[in-house]
Design goal:
19 strands, about 35% strand, alpha+beta, RND_pump_MFP, Elongation Factor Tu (Ef-tu), domain 3, conserved putative lor/sdh protein from methanococcus maripaludis s2 fold, membrane, six-stranded antiparallel barrel, transmembrane helix, four-stranded antiparallel sheet
Amino acid sequence: MLQRSEGGLMATTVAVRRRRRWPWIVAIALAAAGGGAYYYSTRAGSEAGPAYQTATVELGDIETTVTAIAKMQPKTYVDVGTQVSGQLRVIHPDVGAVVKKGELLAEIDPTVYQTRVNGDRASLDNLRAQLAQAEAQLTLDRLRNDRAQELWSKQAGSRDAAEAAEATMRISYAKIDALKAQIAQTQATLEGDLANLGYTKIYAPMDGTVVSITAREGSTLNANQSAPIVLRIADLQTMTVTAQVAEGDIPRITVGTPAYFSTLGLPDRRWEGAVRQIEPTPTIVNDVVLYNVLIDVPNPDLTLMTDMTAQVFFRLGEAKGVPLVPTPAVRTRRDGTATVRVMTPAGPQERTIRTGLSNRSLTQVIEGLAPGETVVTGTAAATGRPGGAGGPRPSMPPRLG
């Protein structure tokens, strides 16, 4: 009984051990199957060949431009100053007022200049009275000289008396000439003082808009050291855009080059113009050489204002309705010829083309490609590598408790 019991106990123990091995065997089999599937899938993916990024040749418009940042100023403006010193009594217009040529803008205290004019006129009257007296004296001296010469000719008078009478007459002539010179000098002084008196009233030299006022009523202006500026008048109907172009781009721009721009406040509105002038003297900013390029543009609605910032595009060339390909698809050989890789049923094939206008994104195709064809722009990033980003990870065997 004991031996039979012991035999049965051993058989039971072996059966239990066999049942405990089955989960491990299943887990190992699953791990082996997963590893084999992962190996064959990655090998098949690597043998499938690279994937390409492509684009279709399409008809469209293209233009090549040079871009620059610009500031805006009125084309015609004048700083209205004063030619005389004195206290600024009144400024008639306000900033933004539209004025006409000859309109009174400001007045300076005229007291000093009016006094000078009055003094000049009094001096002039005095000299003219002296001239009249001298002319009367000359008449008398001329008569006396005639009588003395007549008596001397008849031997009835002395020679000394005749010579004295003649000398007196000549002195009278000289006095009259001196007085006439003094009158002319005083007249010139009077005209200058009258001009200065007129300068105490400042008039508009042109039609335009008062864009700034730098002086203040009651302040004293000194015109002896520098010409004080009272206000600025500008014609806002035509604005000048001053664009700063880098020295590397300036050879591509000439007088007459078409341009368009938009402002910071109105980015969706476009103004058209053409280059009027390229200033020969550059401006150097942080060791960068920049040349000022001037563009005139009409401003009938006065939307454009002084010192506005604009982004200017100088149009160097344009074409419409032409075959276009992405610029990254075009390759340039050492001999200067351009090529692209065209997708065919047999795979990508290299083809020589002739290009036209080109910018950073698009290139015009003149010859060698037709709309609808597909070109290679690059190679897609590889995926599916073990451990790589986005690739499948190998299966791990299940953890058994």
